[in-house]
């Protein structure tokens, strides 16, 4: 089997004090800093940011809305008064995705642009004509997104009609700084949803059409870690060791799907998030085991996948996922306010190129409808 495996991002595992020192070493850059006040406080970065702002020409974005749109990208471009040569994004998946959107569209700085032209550039991939290779440091504050090692960022159309993305090799962060310490304060609901996102990345990458021996090993390692440590971290959220293991699980899953992409569960998740506000991790995990039933016969080394879960069949996996969600969020569409009457609209919006067609089994509209009805 011939295949490529890309590793374009330098990975650094740090603690908070090491990260402060790392930031203080950065000098004489024109920086776009994406960092909310809440994150600044959580990291106790205030003094260090003062130094950072003094040593660099720094434009800062203080507010990151969940699921960034073309409007949020325009807001970033409006805020910066000079083309940046370094981006530091500290936050959840949305902060890192917003940074990717801003880098992709940074050719607009100093030019005429509007929300419409930004949207057009994303939809028609015009930004690809301008290869903006910018040093980019991504610092995730959750354990799940994987965005710190991927070359694409999710951008949502502002009127909630479409999930878009920016994608290019030069959009992958040059460095990912993983700081398990900062995930200790993550609320339980976010811990669960981001953990389930990572589990979906690992599992979908495993059965993806583009999976390869390296990605599958990473997927299995991720699944083993998440299976062991998600229940522990939910029970004892303050335990550093459990948080650290979840960060590794998320990172391994990220490295796997950065090379293979995700599949049907992610494709089905987009309308659930866009139209019904279902958090990304739940929106992916809700169909994971039903999609697995469809995919089962086409999964390479399927028994190895079950072994990574430490289970002998799909129903056991489903029960395990439901058990983790118990008391936090029932994992059914109706529990998120998605009614039977909404299903048809979701079905019609689930087919995302690059995701659905990466599923090992070609799912028809009828199959997706059947999957959604089973989890209603
Ligand atoms: Zn995801």
TrEMBL record:
Organism: Lachnotalea glycerini
Molecular function via GO: alcohol dehydrogenase (NAD+) activity; metal ion binding
Annotated coiled-coil segments of the chain: none
Biological process, per Gene Ontology: antibiotic biosynthetic process
Record-annotated Alcohol dehydrogenase iron-type/glycerol dehydrogenase GldA domain positions: 19-179
Top-rank lineage group of the source organism: Bacteria
InterPro entries documented for this protein: ADH_Fe/GldA (IPR001670), ADH_Fe_C (IPR056798), Alcohol_dehydrogenase_Fe (IPR039697), PhpC (IPR035873)
Keywords: Oxidoreductase
Domain Fe-containing alcohol dehydrogenase-like C-terminal positions: 192-372
Protein name as catalogued: Alcohol dehydrogenase class IV
């Amino acid at each position: 089997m011939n295949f490529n495996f890309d590793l374009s991002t330098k990975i650094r595992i740090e603690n908070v004090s090491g990260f402060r020192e790392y930031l203080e070493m950065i000098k004489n850059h024109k920086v776009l800093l994406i960092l909310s006040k809440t994150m600044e406080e959580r990291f106790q970065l205030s003094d260090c940011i003062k130094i950072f702002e003094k040593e660099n020409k720094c434009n800062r974005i203080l507010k990151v809305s969940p699921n960034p749109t073309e409007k949020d990208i325009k807001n970033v471009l409006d805020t910066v008064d000079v083309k940046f040569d370094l981006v530091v994004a500290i936050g959840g998946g949305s902060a890192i995705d917003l940074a990717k959107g801003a880098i992709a569209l940074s050719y607009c700085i100093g030019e005429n642009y509007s929300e419409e032209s930004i949207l057009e550039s994303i939809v028609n991939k015009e930004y690809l004509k301008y290869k903006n290779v910018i040093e980019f440091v991504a610092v995730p504050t959750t354990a799940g997104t994987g965005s710190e090692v991927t070359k694409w960022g999710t951008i949502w159309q502002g009127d909630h009609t479409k999930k878009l993305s920016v994608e290019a090799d030069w959009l992958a962060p040059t460095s990912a700084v993983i700081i398990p310490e900062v995930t200790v304060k993550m609320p339980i609901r976010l811990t669960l949803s981001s953990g389930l996102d990572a589990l979906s990345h690992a599992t979908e990458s495993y059965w993806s059409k583009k999976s390869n021996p390296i990605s599958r090993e990473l997927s299995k390692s991720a699944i083993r870690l998440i299976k062991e440590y998600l229940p522990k971290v939910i029970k004892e959220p303050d335990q550093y060791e459990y948080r650290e293991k979840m960060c590794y699980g998320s990172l391994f899953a990220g490295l796997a799907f950065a090379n293979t992409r995700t599949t049907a569960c992610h494709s089905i998740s987009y309308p659930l998030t866009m139209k019904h506000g279902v958090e990304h991790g739940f929106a992916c995990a809700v169909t994971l085991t039903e999609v697995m039933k469809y995919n089962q016969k086409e999964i390479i080394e399927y028994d190895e996948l079950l072994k990574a879960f430490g289970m002998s069949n799909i129903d056991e996996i489903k029960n395990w996922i439901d058990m983790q969600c118990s008391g936090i969020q029932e994992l059914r569409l109706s529990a998120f306010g998605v009614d039977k009457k909404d299903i048809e609209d979701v079905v019609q919006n689930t087919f995302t190129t690059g995701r659905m067609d990466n599923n090992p089994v070609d799912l028809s509209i009828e199959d997706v409808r059947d999957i959604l009805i089973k989890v209603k």
